[in-house]
């Protein structure tokens, strides 16, 4: 379980964006362990009913249909439902993707850095009403065909997504997740909180007392990584006035302030259907989706949940933060970090601007030849780039760029280089070839939505949430054809990008420079402070109370070491052989020819992208083969290509 480990996700934009996402994705915690299977390959096949013709189910199982739309970009029918009794919102996408995905997301804005959202994310996966065992997901994974199983704590939300190509497996996973979030055992069992959050550990009365806890230990690791420190300092400095100014993952010096009562209260408030956004995607039945959800939701009553994320007002003047990171003893190579950050907007961008800023990000940083990236990489002032540009998953988009491995005296040079390079680019503009290349890269990646091993449905869910979570239209982020056409039209007439650079990066006063320096005394100071805190607590304990801490330590260890009984484990659903379809999927195939060559074509939705593969038997003594030997009528092949 690692808080900083990215849930190997890309939210489906440009490869550069995917690379960035991997670097600085919000706290994703593999609490259920990334169970992505290699070798499970989901092929698109023709659905029995075309998504365009799909009707809402006759029986809505306690939901009302809010709207329905067809999203041509992903050949998907979208129904937005609301649960009448609780107000829970459901976005249901149907298309022919057999890699079905489900996710339940709660807005969980923390008020402090005790790490409640993160500790909860761990704890709800430690057994539930229907699955009263230690780690249902660990057991479930043993017999599951899941293509994704994870949970992620962001600065403002907690997401529980799953995916599987097998229908029964998918339903099992959904059931275990819904039971986990709505009926976790950790609400009655303080031991889970102590184990996953924090507790005092003492083996014998005269022994050394320490803090222990899964999240406590995990966050100590995160806080010792300078890259994490930089990302956190930047986020907190950009957003001093809203929930992004604290750490949802938990600050190890603040985590021990958290009580079990506050922890329970947080779950009661936010893990409620009235604060839930649920997502279904793929080729499974819509009515069944509603039926499953209603079976969990109907026992709750609607409630007002204030979980909205406040807007960070813009600064009047740029700011500067000088902070330190823990440097190892005797390491002479420790150097500084410097990163410049901007807050770009007062809310999510509209689709056309989002596309334009995405293109701009790619133009500035997307390739080794991109001017901002090249200027930094070739400057010799630092060892590697940090920040990596645009971040647009939270309430307000930001941009960050800097270098690590910088000599302290070179920090002003790095800042000046960033400022000068941006000014130069704004004055000179980009070449048409560079613009075309960035537009093509991003457009292709949006059309293809090739998210690698990360399920497509989840990539779309994360995109929808970027608007849905902030009272925006969740369907809008899935549509790009119209805004793209509009933007292209505008780009033909005016210089969109230099105007954007001026507005967002040059004239924008909401700018924070973070300077992060190594500190060799810091580790010792932190350790001393923690020891002093524990010593102070210990001094206040009577001998009986001290004995109680020893007994509790022992009890917790005993519980951790006691395995679930076979009877308890029997609650975990497993797949039967009969749950695995015997028939191979039928992929439509037409046999035709181009010239002398036999050509197989498959009529499936590929978002205007043509995939072609040519295979040949090589003669024993072959001459050099020219392209036109294979594509004598190549114009036919490229007509539909990107
Ligand atoms: Zn974690």
Can you give a write-up of this model?
The structure is a single chain. This protein is α+β, with helices and mostly antiparallel strands. Among the domains are: 17-45 and 586-630, no CATH class; 319-519, Metalloenzyme, LuxS/M16 peptidase-like (Cytochrome Bc1 Complex, Chain A, domain 1, 2-Layer Sandwich), CATH 3.30.830. Helices cover 37% and strands 18% of the residues. Strands 1, 2, 3, 4, 5, 6, 7, 8 and 11 form a 9-stranded mixed β-sheet that branches. Strands 12-16-13-15-14 form a 5-stranded mixed β-sheet, with helices on both faces. It has a two-stranded antiparallel ribbon with strand order 9-10. A hairpin with a 4-residue loop joins strand 2 and strand 3. The protein is globular and about 90 Å long. Residues 1-47 and 634-642 have low confidence and may be disordered. The site of zinc ion has 8 residues, from helix 2 and helix 6.
Considering the chains and any ligands shown, give keywords for the structure.
642 residues; alpha+beta; Cytochrome Bc1 Complex, Chain A, domain 1; nine-stranded mixed beta sheet; five-stranded mixed beta sheet; 21 helices; 37% helix; disordered N terminus; disordered C terminus; binds zinc ion
Write the layout of secondary structure elements.
Blueprint lengths: L14 H10 L3 E2 L33 E9 L4 E8 L5 E6 L5 E8 L8 H8 L12 H7 L3 E4 L1 E3 L3 E8 L2 H16 L7 H7 L2 E3 L8 E3 L1 H10 L2 H13 L21 H11 L5 E7 L3 H12 L21 E8 L9 E8 L7 H15 L5 H7 L6 E8 L6 E9 L4 H18 L3 H17 L7 H13 L12 H13 L2 H11 L4 E9 L2 H18 L3 H19 L4 H4 L20 E5 L2 E5 L25 H4 L3 H5 L4
Parallel strand pairs: 4-11, 12-16
Antiparallel strand pairs: 1-7, 2-3, 3-4, 5-8, 5-11, 6-8, 7-8, 9-10, 13-15, 13-16, 14-15, 17-18
Helix pairs in contact: 2-8, 10-13, 10-15, 11-12, 12-16
Bound molecules: zinc ion.
